[in-house]
Write a structure and sequence with these properties.
By secondary structure, the protein is mainly alpha-helical. It contains 16 helices and five strands. The chain has three domains: about 50 residues, no CATH class; about 100 residues, no CATH class; about 120 residues, no CATH class. The protein has a three-stranded mixed beta sheet. Pfam families: DUF247. Keywords: Membrane, Transmembrane, Transmembrane helix.
Length: about 350
């Protein structure tokens, strides 16, 4: 016991205060413990105060977030959200079934460096000098598994592969000039437009009966949706879209991105998918869209496209319920606030 007391007495408290066993006047043990608690509590309070500021500083960089946890339990999650052959970035890097894709990336990156006459060492040095900014673009847990050197190599390889892939696709488009150009332009920037109102839409058959004609828009931007009203009829202009095996995973991943906190809050693609869900109920609706050159069916029969549209929207039906409940709560709270805002009547 005496030996233990001697060892304890050798430890000086924080702040340079002398210990009780050193023979000098110091803090009592109870006061010392309270001082540590107060310091820890102040640090915790300060972390809460700076949380908003740190979040704001992180959002200054474009981010590539992971799929939200709330969507990971959906049906066919791995089929639509996880890569099958090639992965980009640290989230799926190193998985065994993606080894063949790493070989493809190396070949494409080598061709890009040769065709563009870029110096690989210079590119690597530039990436490594901005590696901290690169880390802020991804989930911190995923990037902590790699040191700066490995992460810089990963970014160099993936970046050169993507550039070579885009250059190759652009070259094929210039040569073929076919309807595939519409599909490639779907990934382009979305045109700015006014926010859509929360209104119920009809399917194409009901719109046709009501005297509303469908026409393709001048561009393939998803927001290029407009309506022109005339004396006896109306025209609904819709952007052309190609429906194939890549359409559903593409939309699902963009919708998942729009649900992330750092994404824009306009929900452009989510609104467009819900709009398609309202337009397409049956195979006849798909046929009408095809006849107007608005929808190009590369998926199979018109029945397959109708089922595809229904299943895609049903995957997000729980969020529609949550949004409805939130809207009802807001209306109730607004009503209560208005009621209590009036002065009580005197008896």
């Amino acid at each position: 016991m005496e030996g233990q007391q001697e060892r304890i007495g050798e430890i000086e408290p924080v702040g340079g205060q002398p210990s009780r066993n050193s023979g000098q006047t110091g803090l009592e043990p109870e006061e010392y413990r309270i001082d540590i608690f107060e310091i820890s509590h102040r640090n915790w309070i300060e972390s809460l105060r700076t949380a908003e500021e740190s979040t704001r500083s992180q959002s200054q960089w474009p981010r590539i977030p992971k799929v939200p946890q709330m969507l990971r339990g959906t049906q066919d999650f791995k089929k639509f959200y996880e890569p099958r052959l090639i992965s980009i970035g640290p989230y799926h890097h190193g998985k065994p079934h993606l080894h063949a894709g790493e070989i493809i990336k190396r070949l494409c990156a080598r061709k890009f460096l040769a065709d563009s006459e870029q110096d690989m060492d210079a590119l690597y040095t530039k990436i490594q000098s901005n590696i901290e900014a690169v880390r802020t673009c991804y989930d911190m847990i995923s990037t902590n598994k790699y040191d700066d050197e490995k992460l810089a190599r990963m970014m160099l390889l993936d970046g050169c592969f993507l550039l070579q892939f885009f250059c190759g696709r652009a070259g094929n488009l210039r040569k073929k000039k076919s309807r595939r150009r519409v599909k490639e332009e779907m990934g382009g920037p979305v045109a700015h437009g006014r926010k859509a109102k929360n209104e119920a839409f009809r399917n194409t058959k009901e719109l046709k009966v009501a005297g509303i004609h469908l026409q393709p828009s001048g561009t393939s931007f998803l927001r290029d949706v407009s309506f022109n009203s005339y004396f006896f009829y109306g025209c609904l202009n819709l952007p052309p879209i190609i429906v194939d095996d890549f359409t559903k995973p593409k939309f699902l991943n963009i919708v998942a991105y729009e649900m992330c906190p750092d994404a824009p809050d306009d929900y452009a693609v989510t609104s467009y998918v819900c709009f398609l869900y309202e337009l397409i109920d049956h195979a006849d609706d798909v046929k009408e869209l095809r006849s107007k050159h608005i929808l190009y069916n590369c998926l199979g029969s018109d029945e397959d496209v109708a089922k595809f549209s229904t299943r895609s929207a049903m995957a997000w039906s729980p969020w529609t319920i949550i949004a409805f409940i939130a809207a009802v709560l807001i209306l109730l709270l607004t009503g209560f606030q208005t009621y209590f805002a009036f002065p009580a009547k005197s008896k």
